[in-house]
Design goal:
This protein has 355 residues and is an alpha/beta fold. The protein is built from twelve helices and 15 strands.
Length: 355
């Protein structure tokens, strides 16, 4: 792990980003923002999962107006995602958006950007310059021939300069591509040029499996290099899964810990209990737990006892039963049909009482 790069600090609502603050976890609603009830419900579920900043699409003025109603009903900071019409950014700020995300390739010319930065400065709202490989300016694409890392960095730097010329510096930047290697290269290049906080992610990463792999490699590599102040995992999935994967990436790098860490074996011919069902049941039951005890669920007598002993709570199962470990000590034997219930109860007791 390399030392984390020191960046400027901004605030999205009450959430600090950059300047050594904990790496913030973001996601985006996939509801129609104009559906206030449904959007608020999803934001609530995201917040319960640990999401600290939520982005919403604002495709029209009706959605901008709905943002005001949503803002009044939720606690988590809201970022308005704006494309094509700078007036939507102004409307979103008027309706209480805590921050904006604009795409420099489609938001308009200098006059439009000046209006947005002026309103954002007055509102105390930061702006993310969100460069996306799929929507680069035609002029830059023509220069490079394709949406490469160099093209994304050039686009970002042009807009950083424009923001600075306009006297606006409450900025964070993202450079996203569905290509992991290109994404990594772009962030490495940009990190050498600016000290603004960076929002890191691999865009349009894909389904749960492929998207998790691409995000873990891209985001994880950059974080290990000390690059990144806030992250969003992009998955074609319920956005709560994005939050879960984000925290697992942070946990793997020992940067942040949220929720129980479940260690379980991949199973083999020695497994003598229904480990798949056991792990699924326990994980589902503990998904709302914010504390982060280490929970081992092992299916055989080879590695199971050793792994279970190293966990805060552990089960080593075999032949229709399992041995319950707590803090490295054997507690008792438990029948297989009681393993899930006992393990869940023990973890919750540990979280509540410390014992």
């Amino acid at each position: 792990m390399e030392k984390r790069k020191t960046t400027r600090r901004i605030h999205v609502g009450k959430v600090p980003v950059g300047g050594g603050a904990p790496i913030a976890v973001q996601s985006m609603t996939n509801t129609d923002t104009r559906n206030v009830e449904g959007t608020c419900e999803q934001i609530g579920r995201l917040s319960d999962a640990g999401c600290e900043i939520v982005r919403l699409a604002v495709p029209d003025f009706e959605a901008a107006a709905a943002l005001g109603e949503i803002k009044a009903r939720v606690q988590v900071p809201l970022v308005a995602d704006i494309h094509f019409d700078h007036r939507l950014a102004l409307a979103a700020l008027e309706n209480g958006a805590d921050a904006l995300r604009i795409n420099p390739g489609n938001i308009g010319g200098r006059r439009a950007v000046a209006k947005v930065t002026g309103a954002a400065k007055e509102a105390g709202a930061p702006i993310r310059i969100g460069v996306n490989a799929g929507s680069l300016e035609k002029r830059i694409l023509k220069k490079y021939g394709h949406p490469c890392a160099e093209a994304m960095v050039e686009s970002a730097m042009e807009h950083v300069k424009l923001f600075e010329d306009l006297g606006f510096e409450q900025t964070k930047i993202s450079l996203k591509s569905s290509n992991v290697v290109s994404t990594i290269k772009a962030y490495e290049m940009l990190s050498e040029k600016v000290d603004y906080p960076l929002h890191v992610g691999v865009t349009e990463a894909g389904t749960l499996v492929s998207g998790t792999v691409k995000s873990a490699i891209g985001i994880g590599y950059l974080l290990a290099r000390g690059i990144g102040d806030t992250i969003r995992v992009s998955l074609t999935r319920d956005p709560r899964e994005e939050v879960k994967v984000a925290y697992e990436i942070l946990r793997a790098l020992d940067l942040r810990h949220r929720g129980p860490e479940i260690i379980s074996c991949p199973t083999c011919g020695r497994t003598e209990i229904d480990l798949f069902q056991l792990v699924e049941t326990v994980e589902k039951a503990l998904c709302g737990v914010a504390a982060s005890p280490k929970v081992a669920i092992m299916g055989c007598v080879v590695n199971g006892p050793g792994e279970a002993k190293e966990a805060d709570i552990g089960i080593a199962g075999g032949r229709g039963q399992g041995i319950l470990f707590k803090k490295g000590k054997v507690v008792r034997k438990v029948a297989e049909n009681q393993l899930a219930e006992v393990l869940i109860d023990e973890v919750k007791r540990l979280v509540e009482t410390g014992r």
